[in-house]
Amino acid sequence: MRTSVMAACLLGLFLFVSQPLSVPSRQIVNDEAGASPKTVDDEQLKAPSVQNETQTAVHPNGTSQHLPQTIIIGVRKGGTRALIEMLSLHPGIAAAESEVHFFDWEDHFEKGLQWYVSQMPFSYPHQITVEKTPAYFTSSKVPERIHKMNPAIRLLLILRDPTERILSDYTQVFYNHLHKHKLYQPIETVLIKNGDISMDYKALNRSLYYIHMQNWLKYFPLSHIHVVDGDVLIKDPLPEMKRVEKFLNLSAQINASNFYFNQTKGFYCLRDRGRERCLHESKGRAHPQVASPILNKLYQFFHEPNKKFFELIDRTFDWH
């Protein structure tokens, strides 16, 4: 009799242990007493078909990995690193450490959304998860892919004067070649062909903002895309960051004490809870000297494309 009872108990215990553990998609846990709830709009978090396809990893401390609610989509050499570093000053933000390239690299995209989630940081329920991949803006297939994941997502786009962006683009490639002990063509050679602006130069295409913006506006309303002025951000970061806070419905946390001007580097660095840090030394490099006639050609070339872009977003920038 005693043996039968014990056997029944063991069988019951085995059946209980073998049941699959139910894990909520978002664990409602605060990281500290009085933590404020996430203030981003509820609709922004809704992507039912996608959320059901992914499983959320939950950490014992109440943090979890999940799809981003905000993506910095570009542009390359527009100031995306500065933007995500400054945005990370806000306690309501959890930012991915590296560029994920999920939507623009086929080998990553084929791994599926579960892999994408695994690349995200662990965050508390009140935080907004953000990732940045500057190449998204100029990739024709990315807008539709992001829209399928979450049509209500909020997008951040940081842009600079197109000519300045090209010079910065060239500078990065030049130093990459230099680091590998390889030669690279002078900037005049890549910019000019047969006396005119060379349309073969890829960096030129990246600065034709209106072409790429037209593609994004096919899938997202302008109200879901906030354009950050990259030229202003590096000169006076606080006003631009206050606009970003407002766009993401974040509480006002970033303030003047978070920034200080580094005379040696020549740009603003960050101060976060007593710790100071600057962007990597590769940021803020001096651009190559370009002859005035070539610069004027670039200014003239971008005049009409810039005008079209301003009309698209119903806003102007102080560009040449």
From TrEMBL:
<feature type="compositionally biased region" description="Polar residues">
    <location>
        <begin position="49"/>
        <end position="64"/>
    </location>
</feature>
<dbReference type="GO" id="GO:0006024">
    <property type="term" value="P:glycosaminoglycan biosynthetic process"/>
</dbReference>
<comment type="function">
    <text>Sulfotransferase that utilizes 3'-phospho-5'-adenylyl sulfate (PAPS) to catalyze the transfer of a sulfo group to position 3 of glucosamine residues in heparan. Catalyzes the rate limiting step in the biosynthesis of heparan sulfate (HSact). This modification is a crucial step in the biosynthesis of anticoagulant heparan sulfate as it completes the structure of the antithrombin pentasaccharide binding site.</text>
</comment>
<feature type="binding site">
    <location>
        <position position="268"/>
    </location>
    <ligand>
        <name>3'-phosphoadenylyl sulfate</name>
    </ligand>
</feature>
<dbReference type="GO" id="GO:0008467">
    <property type="term" value="F:[heparan sulfate]-glucosamine 3-sulfotransferase activity"/>
</dbReference>
<feature type="binding site">
    <location>
        <position position="168"/>
    </location>
    <ligand>
        <name>3'-phosphoadenylyl sulfate</name>
    </ligand>
</feature>
<keyword id="KW-1015">Disulfide bond</keyword>
<comment type="similarity">
    <text>Belongs to the sulfotransferase 1 family.</text>
</comment>
<feature type="disulfide bond">
    <location>
        <begin position="269"/>
        <end position="278"/>
    </location>
</feature>
<dbReference type="Pfam" id="PF00685">
    <property type="entry name" value="Sulfotransfer_1"/>
</dbReference>
<keyword id="KW-0808">Transferase</keyword>
<keyword id="KW-0732">Signal</keyword>
<dbReference type="GO" id="GO:0005796">
    <property type="term" value="C:Golgi lumen"/>
</dbReference>
<feature type="binding site">
    <location>
        <begin position="283"/>
        <end position="287"/>
    </location>
    <ligand>
        <name>3'-phosphoadenylyl sulfate</name>
    </ligand>
</feature>
<feature type="domain" description="Sulfotransferase">
    <location>
        <begin position="68"/>
        <end position="302"/>
    </location>
</feature>
<feature type="binding site">
    <location>
        <position position="160"/>
    </location>
    <ligand>
        <name>3'-phosphoadenylyl sulfate</name>
    </ligand>
</feature>
<keyword id="KW-0325">Glycoprotein</keyword>
<dbReference type="InterPro" id="IPR027417">
    <property type="entry name" value="P-loop_NTPase"/>
</dbReference>
<dbReference type="InterPro" id="IPR000863">
    <property type="entry name" value="Sulfotransferase_dom"/>
</dbReference>
<feature type="binding site">
    <location>
        <begin position="77"/>
        <end position="81"/>
    </location>
    <ligand>
        <name>3'-phosphoadenylyl sulfate</name>
    </ligand>
</feature>
<protein>
    <recommendedName>
        <fullName>Sulfotransferase</fullName>
        <ecNumber>2.8.2.-</ecNumber>
    </recommendedName>
</protein>
<keyword id="KW-0333">Golgi apparatus</keyword>
<feature type="active site" description="For sulfotransferase activity">
    <location>
        <position position="77"/>
    </location>
</feature>
<feature type="signal peptide">
    <location>
        <begin position="1"/>
        <end position="20"/>
    </location>
</feature>
<feature type="region of interest" description="Disordered">
    <location>
        <begin position="33"/>
        <end position="64"/>
    </location>
</feature>
<dbReference type="InterPro" id="IPR037359">
    <property type="entry name" value="NST/OST"/>
</dbReference>
